[in-house]
Amino acid sequence: MTAETSDTGPPRHDDLAERFRAGDEAALREAYDRYGRSVFHLATSTLVNRADAEDVTQAAFVAAWLGRETFDPTKGSLVGWLLGITRRKVVDRLRVAARETRAVETVRQLPEPESTGPDPDRVVDRLVIADELARLPADQRRMLELAFFDDLTHQQIATVTGVPLGTVKSHIRRGMATLKRRWEVDGATAPGARPAGISGAR
Fold it and tell me: How far is Cα 139 from Cα 167, in angstroms, rounded to an integer?
């Protein structure tokens, strides 16, 4: 009778939260499978760019995993904790995007320097590249502008923007491929442009 009562009682919630907090990698995968859609939905509800939402989703799970010991199952659910981290990551991404936009606009509004004999070809090359960058998707343009105008490495761009290094490389690779195709079609490649070797795109 006792055994029957135990078997027919209310089902016990699985121990996913406890296993996650304990560092069980299988629990991490299970948590992503179970809650990844909710995290991504929250990110896309605020961020217009899908690539940014994907990056935020990944960053949220990475942060949760690295900080798993701070999760207290007695104070809330695992999904609620994950969504809280996601909200903070979304805010961080919006702040970074706003800061980068201001920086780029400031650079673009700077007056041209006094004529001190700069290489005319070099100036033309930079203007052509800036014009082509403006035609790229926002995520690719942002990475290439940081690489070209600020001369940042891939790792530095990842650090500044909070975007995973692999995503930074992917955006820059796709952007460079697009620029190269345009230059080849338009015949716009100038001697100093070197579209495959923009300074900082490394």
Answer: 10
Sequential DSSP letters for 138-193: HHHHHHHHHHHTS---HHHHHHHH---HHHHHHHHHHHHHHHHHHHHHHT---TTT
> What are 29-71's pLDDT values in tens digits?
999 999 999 999 999 998 888 888 998 999 999 999 999 999 9
CA–CA distance, 141 with 178 (Å, rounded to integer) = 11
Rounded-to-integer distance, Cα 129 and Cα 159, Å: 24
Rg (the chain; Cα; Å): 24
In terms of Cβ atoms closer than 10 Å to its own Cβ (0-12, 13-18, 19+), residue 186 is exposed
Vertex 15 angle, CA 9 and 20, to 5° = 170
The CA distances from residue 77 to 14, 17, 31, 134, 191, in Å, are: 12, 8, 12, 44, 59
Q: Residue 149 is which amino acid?
A: F
Rounded to whole angstroms, how far apart are CA atoms 76 and 71?
9
Sign of the CA dihedral with 181 first, then 197, 50, and 58 last:
positive
pTM above 0.70, yes or no: no
